[in-house]
Amino acid sequence: MLRQKKFSFCQPSVKYAGFILSVEETGADPDKVTVIAEFTVPTNITELQSFLGLVNQLGNFVTEIVHTADLTPTTSKSPKHLLMGETS
DSSP letters along 19-55, please? Predict the structure, then answer.
């Protein structure tokens, strides 16, 4: 059975999976952008991967996020290296 409260028909725009979808354009959900801006500094590999997932999801819409730092190589290092601030 379908639940009526989960559906929106004839709306100018809707929020879905971190995006705002409309007839005119698709953009990042401002709530998700706020989450990224207020994300605490990751202290382990799981938190870092969570942060990178958010950045990756919205990177095409908020280009400033992607160009701020190249964080991708960091995920290949062990958590010990991440927490100790070592670069090699």
Answer: EEEESS-EEE-HHHHHHHHTPPPP-SHHHHHHHHHHH
